[in-house]
Design goal:
There is one protein chain. The chain is α/β, with parallel strands linked by helices. It has a single domain, classed as Sandwich (Hypothetical Protein Aq_1857, Chain: A), CATH 2.60.300.12. The protein has 3 helices and 8 strands; from the N terminus they run βαββββαββαβ. The strands form 2 sheets. A 5-stranded mixed β-sheet has the order 3-2-5-4-8. A hairpin with a 2-residue loop joins strand 4 and strand 5. The radius of gyration is 14 Å and the shape is globular. It starts with a strand and ends with a strand.
């Protein structure tokens, strides 16, 4: 099966650091407005996905949820979680006090990959 989500080494290192400080984690990527479209990292259970939001995968056990409307737009894309220095839009995200921000790099799946994608999970 083809994964919908991967992470760079820098993102993995930061997730490990955040897990050590905060315990189990989760990610949520909203569709815009106040929180922007950058992924935000929370303690597991610190954010409640809405009905029909989509879980596209996990990184080190941290579920990665995407806003249902954003997923409709990006469903044919692979997400790679990365991290940048600086303050992003998500002031509530756990990496913010460290002067970091998570970012997604997108690429379209190939026709062959689309036939073998891992299933998604909808919030019910």
């Amino acid at each position: 099966m083809i994964k919908r989500l991967d992470a760079t080494e820098k993102a993995v290192d930061l997730i490990l650091e955040l897990k050590e400080a905060h315990g189990e984690l989760m990610f949520y990527q909203a569709g815009g407005c106040c929180e922007g479209t950058q992924p935000q990292c929370f303690e597991k259970g610190g954010y409640f996905p809405r009905m029909n939001d989509v879980m596209i995968g996990e990184i080190l056990g941290a579920e990665f949820w995407v806003d249902r409307d954003l997923f409709e737009y990006w469903q044919y894309s692979h997400f790679t979680l990365d991290v940048l220095d600086g303050f992003g839009v998500g002031g509530f995200s756990l990496e913010t006090p460290l002067g970091k921000t998570f970012k997604i790099h997108y690429r379209l799946f190939t026709e062959e990959e689309l036939k073998e994608l891992e299933p998604i999970r909808l919030m019910e």
